[in-house]
Specification:
- By secondary structure, this protein is mainly beta.
- It has a single domain, classed as Immunoglobulin-like (Sandwich), CATH 2.60.40.
- Helices cover 6% and strands 48% of the residues.
- The strands form 2 sheets. A 4-stranded mixed β-sheet has the order 2-1-7-8, with no helix packed on it. Strands 4-3-5-6 form a 4-stranded antiparallel β-sheet.
- The radius of gyration is 14 Å and the shape is globular.
């Protein structure tokens, strides 16, 4: 039973990135197609899977994390333009029955990601 999830941690404040907006896109031959846009909950997670077992499909995907608006909403004074505005993370899913977890650790000046468990 495959699914896709994410979790964002704000490393500048040492907490989950509650309220950060995330867009999931599928990358098709004609270009990106938006599947869903949401705001992360109090734990820095989506309230459910980004893709559940019924909507999982092998292919290329993109997660867009709206980092600058999140930090501005927290009162962080960012330059104009910000060093990091939107983190665009392109990744592939080869197994439609696999579990894909995409965490993001982020600050106004850096980020890190990996395939989680």
């Amino acid at each position: 039973m495959g699914h896709l999830s994410t979790h964002v941690l704000d490393t500048a404040h040492g907490c989950p990135a509650a309220g950060l907006r995330v867009t999931l896109q599928r990358i098709d031959a004609a270009g990106p197609v938006t599947i869903k846009t949401l705001a992360l909950n109090h734990d820095g997670r989506a309230d459910g899977p980004l893709l559940d077992e019924d909507s999982m499909a092998a292919g290329r995907y993109r997660l867009l994390f709206e980092v600058a608006p999140y930090f501005r909403a927290r009162g962080v004074a960012l330059p104009d333009p910000p060093f990091i505005d939107t983190v665009a993370l392109d990744f592939g899913m080869a197994d439609a029955e696999g579990h894909y977890h995409v965490p993001l650790l982020v600050s106004p000046y850096g980020y890190s990601t990996y395939r989680g468990s």
